[in-house]
Amino acid sequence: MQQGIHTISFVGLGLIGASLMQALKRAAEATGRKIEMIGFDPGFDAGDIAAITGKCGLDRFEPNPAKLYDADLVVLCAPVVTNIALLDEVKPHIRKETVVSDVSSTKAEIATRARELGIEFIGMHPIAGREQQGYRAASPELLDGRLVILCADCTNPETARAAELAGLLRDSGCRPLFMSPEEHDRVYANISHLPQLVSTALMEHCRENVAWGGPGFASMARLAGSPWAVWRDIVETNRDNIADELEAFSALLAEVAGEVRSGNFEALEAKFREANDLYQRLQERSGA
Questions:
Q1: What angle do CA 224, 143, 148 make, to 5 degrees?
Q2: For the chain, what percent of residues have pLDDT higher than 70?
Q3: Cα separation of 87 and 46, whole Å?
């Protein structure tokens, strides 16, 4: 395969951005390639710049937009609304062949804006994370075996540059999977955004009894600790899909409530059996 990615710029060097940078650098080195890793983060001071340059995988910290965006691949690693706004800043500086990507949790709105600006866009969504934040918690191992959703806004996602990026991700230990931006947002409204809001609502519903909760309740409520600053952007850019999922789940809860009230244990047992089976499959797939 012809190799067109020789420089990658990361705009935002937090946990996911820095981990992805390290993973791609490790993959390049393992396959005998030289890819320069450039980055910028507006929150970094001199100590942060010194710490992340070199041993953490960054080759050059670059605050000058003209030089920062002069790369083969530009990866936006801020919250999604900020990333959408950054596209307008990126556009005047990128080359015609530059591919722009991001690591946001929603994809349709940013893909639409990139299309309006005439930017070649391949969105990324690494399905990974940890409770610690920041580049000091970053590690290439964070992405080992993890799905990375690739959203190419074209009828054939396996373009040369998309295929090269997917290959780099495979070499770094990830499992790339192509989806359209619209399909991505529908799927993750169901398996990510719905659980977050259910956990948040659960804590509100149970607030008077939280002090007596045990490990099971704590597991159900874990997502309630997520910061609103992150989730505001996700909700804002995927409102219709999330609202559809909440309404459908509310209808299912009403059905379960009816079965409990009427003592329909046969229906409840069937739900438990199906949930047990799905949970087992989930555990096997995740390697737990």
A1: 85
A2: 94
A3: 27
Give the pLDDT confidence of 246-260 residue by residue, as tens digits: 999 999 999 999 999
- Residue-averaged pLDDT of the chain: 91
Listed residue (75, 8, 79) closest to 43, CA to CA: 79
Neighbours of 236 (CB within 10 A): 13
Could you give the angle at the alpha carbon of 209 between the alpha carbons of 206 and 215, nearest 5°?
85
Q: Residue 287 — pLDDT band, cuts 50, 70, 90?
A: low
Residue after which a domain boundary falls, among 131, 158, 179 = 179
Domain CATH number, residue 271: 1.10.3660.10
Q: Are residues 212 and 123 in the same domain?
A: no
Same domain, 171 and 217: no
Q: Is the domain of 160 the same as that of 239?
A: no
2 in any annotated domain: no
Please give the tally of structural domains in the chain: 2
The pLDDT of residue 3 is 67
Mean pLDDT in residue range 116-132: 87
Phi then psi dihedrals of residue 162, to 5 deg: -65, -40
Contacts of 71 (CB under 8 A, 6+ apart): 7, 8, 9, 38, 94, 98
